């Protein structure tokens, strides 16, 4: 007979553990959160707003990563952990609702920046407490959790609270400092106590969040033409945008993600933990950030192409949005290159060169029609993938 205590007990995972439906359900709220970050930047595109959007994304990413690690050691679909996940979903949903107002709070209602910070702190504390309860006899982990609370949670939380009292550049800089301390604190606390029980689960979880980000870019294409007529230029722009997304998908799932998972599986102990921290927790953030920035650019391209009453087909993108279109792809390529370098020791020169070119291409994008820029970007991503794939196969084959 199963007792209530048995049903609430957390169940440890093993090396065959895979992603559960509960974790897929948990990710739904982050779909909305990422969409809100794109909306935040699109509402008033500027360098400051782009930096602020990336700061918000980094904080949301940390919330997601915390429970990706936890779900790797304790099953998310059993016991009290599922209840914790639902509670975190509720808090993150509130966080997502406040995102559009974190840097420009509207009158009326609760103060959005303060509410964002309080909910973010609640998520971080729920993670630490749940991790502690999930491993009652693990002294090394408990020591690491204490260091994490003191070095990587409390100081950034205080800075975020202080920053919420300001606006503009001051707020963004204070919050950026909080993010830097939070991320840097993970290196100070060390890898002792943290564990990656199932490499397959860990890799799959992060692959799913990349899919979510790529899905946001497709949503951005649709939102860009919402309420506007669909004509041939719109169809061409949508197809070019999808080509870009498909290229990034293929790069990650065929040439980056598989090698990372194989390397993670080959390691054990702290070596596995450090690789998971570097490759997944840190280096997957540029991938998600790059897709979000590119989505911002594609959304604006589709709007300009579809809204013939306000824009002509010859009009280029302007300002930081022009950089976001190609720069987002550049960040994704450089992040992928860093993952390959960390997992294999090989320097992917094609990806590095392509990433640097995309970062600098914003200066050219402002000089050409927006539709042409998007079409050329799609062609460039496809070409780069072909060249990178051939180069990789040649290196792996070695001398004849």
Features:
400 residues; mainly alpha; I/LWEQ domain; 78% helix; disordered N terminus
> What name does CATH use for the topology of the largest domain?
I/LWEQ domain
User: What are the segments in which pLDDT stays under 50 over at least 5 consecutive residues?
Assistant: 1-6
What is the CATH class of the largest domain?
Mainly Alpha
Structural class, from secondary structure content?
mainly alpha
Average pLDDT metric? 92
Assigned CATH architecture of the largest domain = Up-down Bundle
Question: How many H/I helical runs?
Answer: 15
Dominant shape: globular
**Helical proportion, percent range:** over 70%
The count of DSSP E runs of length 2 or more, i.e. the number of strands, is 0
Helices and strands, in order, run as: HHHHHHHHHHHHHHH
CA-to-CA gap between the ends? 65 Å
**Rounded to an integer, what's the Rg over CA atoms?**
22 Å
Question: How big a fraction of the residues is strand?
Answer: under 5%
Number of domains: 2
- Main sheet makeup: none
